[in-house]
Design goal:
single chain; 9 helices; nine-stranded antiparallel beta sheet; five-stranded antiparallel beta sheet; 602 residues; globular; 30% strand
């Protein structure tokens, strides 16, 4: 009897990112498994072998290990919350010795097949998940880990479009592992046929880490101007005449197959227009949020300090934690939400903790704190808006902006969707800024691509809940309104909740939507927190903790998940920190492919 496939988490887990996926400037050299937004899932050894390397850092892989298996191949497990105790002891000793938050160690610790190597987490970057790589013995080439494990995927790829491009043509495809459709991925293989003859074939089995090989992504997975967004354009270097018919066959690693025939239209794809506007200088120091306590999955008590920075990003080589005797304290960084963490085993919470934090632009902030409470506490930030402005202050600017977007051919007003109402708080005084930013004008606009996606979600909602309706809280937003929202939180712990107008909110591109649901009685579906809340559990990233603390109910989380599910069927991506906010595509992709309707009123 064949041995069961390796399950690194000891149980069935779903893919959230695939091998060879488009990451803009490189391929994704591993796979990501969902841990249902939880930390602390045991990561077990695939065979007998040794942990030969371990590292702890603030960014990138965060905490990760390299495990040499019995076949000499190397497994990498990243974004870990905690190491096995043997590894953790050595890492912590090295940190105290060097007084550095990021350290690396060469090791030789043996483990048997099935032993727990570490525990999954969210260190480095991203929500809680497990990143896995499998490399050849010299480490220079990554292999698709799914060849050696169970990669659960229940949905066949979607083949969306095809068009001439450059010296050949391109086919647009996206894959998901399960519903709701939250994490768009790449495919495993693609075959192209013409007149029953195969003219192109590609499989994502291995990737070289050499920069020249990673750079091939620019030729293989294209970024072009395009109507839909959550997908990859795969380039096929084969000359095909316009109006020719091709057959595309796409497969994921679980052998789910899709086939689609296309007639290539004469209109060719064009390269995306990149914004050449230089980034504005960062002059604001980092900010600290309200300190609170938390008990992690292993029962260790933590003192957590939320941190924010505006533009340049935090520099964790410039973070320093000291006690009252100037002794260096071990600390960690949690990427979602962005928080510095000190554990009770490293520091007496009744003592004074001194923190100095600098960003990459050299702006620094210092703070002294005490973590006094012995119980888990989760602060609900209270925001006091500025004194409300007079009603007419923003009327001229809003009317000028509407006049611009009405003439912008790529945008349209949201109309004609029977199960959708528009009720925007920014057209009233009932919002956190205290201003009637839209001068009472309840007209909502989006890029036509986003409107098309919204109509898909609306049709799907009607099928599932015929008496439910969407309620739009906000859609496209002018920069004058964005600047006032930013000004309302500038210098507070919540300024990162509002994008800088100089960088460009996704709302400014007409590709973001703030939306909720009304039930059959016309009442807002209970999401546990109102629109525009700054609470830590306003989005998915804080829901598990809030449920454990009794701040959210299972029904409220189910309501949020239903909204995500319906919006996801249209291709919308939910922002992890806000249950109401959905983007039509990843933010960087939107800024690269779309433009704002300029000139905007000043």
């Amino acid at each position: 009897m064949a041995a069961p496939p390796y399950q690194p988490l000891g149980k069935t887990a779903y893919l959230t990112s695939s091998f060879g996926e488009n990451r803009g400037t490189r391929y994704h050299a591993g796979i990501d498994f969902s841990t249902d937004m939880e930390e602390g899932w045991p990561v077990v050894a695939p065979s007998n072998g040794i942990v030969e390397f371990a590292a702890r850092g603030a960014f990138g892989y965060g905490r990760y290990i390299k495990f040499k298996a019995s076949d000499e191949h190397i497994w990498v497990f990243a974004h870990l919350a905690e190491f096995n105790r043997k590894i953790d002891t050595l890492i912590r000793k090295e940190m105290l010795k060097k007084e550095k938050p990021s350290v690396q160690l060469t090791l030789k610790i043996p483990f048997k097949k099935g032993d727990t190597l570490a525990y999954s987490g969210s260190t480095g970057i991203g929500n809680p998940h497990l990143h896995i790589e499998r490399r050849i013995p010299d480490g220079k080439v990554a292999l698709n880990p799914c060849k050696k494990m169970k990669c659960t995927d229940t949905i066949a790829p979607y083949i969306l479009d095809a068009a001439p491009y450059d010296s050949g043509f391109a086919v647009k495809i996206v894959d998901y592992s399960r519903e709701p459709l939250e994490n768009p991925m790449s495919i495993y293989s693609l075959d192209i046929y013409q007149n029953k003859k195969r003219i192109f074939s590609k499989k994502y089995d291995s990737l070289s880490f050499a920069p020249k090989d990673m750079a091939k992504i620019k030729d293989d997975l294209l970024s072009v101007e395009d109507a839909d967004t959550v997908s990859d354009w795969h380039f096929i270097n084969a000359k095909i005449k316009a109006n020719s018919t091709i057959l595309a066959v796409a497969k994921d690693f679980a052998d789910n197959v899709s086939k689609k025939e296309f007639q290539l239209k004469p209109d060719t794809l064009k390269p995306a227009i990149k914004d050449s506007t230089p980034a504005p200088p960062d002059t604001l120091p980092p900010a600290f949020g309200t300190v609170y306590l938390k008990t992690d999955f292993a029962g260790k008590q933590q003192c957590r300090i939320p941190v924010l920075d505006s533009l340049s990003g935090l520099d964790f080589n410039s973070v320093d934690f000291r006690d009252k005797n100037n002794k260096w304290i071990i600390f960690d960084y949690d990427s979602d939400p962005k928080e510095l963490v000190v554990e009770k085993r490293d520091f007496d919470f009744n003592e004074l903790l001194k923190i100095k934090l600098c960003d990459k632009a050299g702006n620094c902030a210092e703070r002294e704190v005490k973590c006094l409470s012995q119980n888990d506490t989760f602060p609900l930030p209270l925001f006091v808006p500025q004194k409300p402005a007079k009603p007419l202050t923003f009327c001229t600017a809003q009317k000028e902006w509407i006049a611009v977007v009405e003439k912008f051919e790529d945008w349209e007003e949201i109309r004609g969707i029977s199960n959708l109402l528009i009720r925007m708080p920014y057209a009233t005084f009932d919002n956190f800024s205290g201003h009637n930013l839209y001068c009472g004008i309840q007209r909502a606009f989006l890029h036509k691509d986003a409107v098309r996606m919204l109509r898909v979600s609306a049709r799907f909602l009607k099928e599932l809940k015929p008496n439910y309706k969407f309620i739009v809280f906000d859609a496209a937003r002018a920069n004058h309104a964005q600047e006032m929202l930013r000004a309302a939180v500038r210098g507070t712990p919540w300024q990162s909740f509002v994008a800088s107008p100089s960088k460009g909110s996704i709302h400014a591109y007409g590709m973001a939507l703030d939306i909720g649901l009304l039930n059959e009685k016309g009442e807002l579906l209970d999401m546990g927190l109102p629109y525009d809340s700054f609470a830590f559990y306003a989005g998915k990233s804080g829901e598990k903790q809030a449920l454990e603390q009794g701040l959210l109910t299972e029904v409220q989380i189910e309501n949020r998940n239903f909204l995500r599910y319906v919006m996801g069927r249209g291709g919308w991506i939910n922002l992890p920190s806000e249950w109401w906010h959905f983007n039509a595509a990843p933010g960087d992709s939107i800024r690269a492919r779309y433009v704002q309707p300029l000139p905007l009123p000043q």
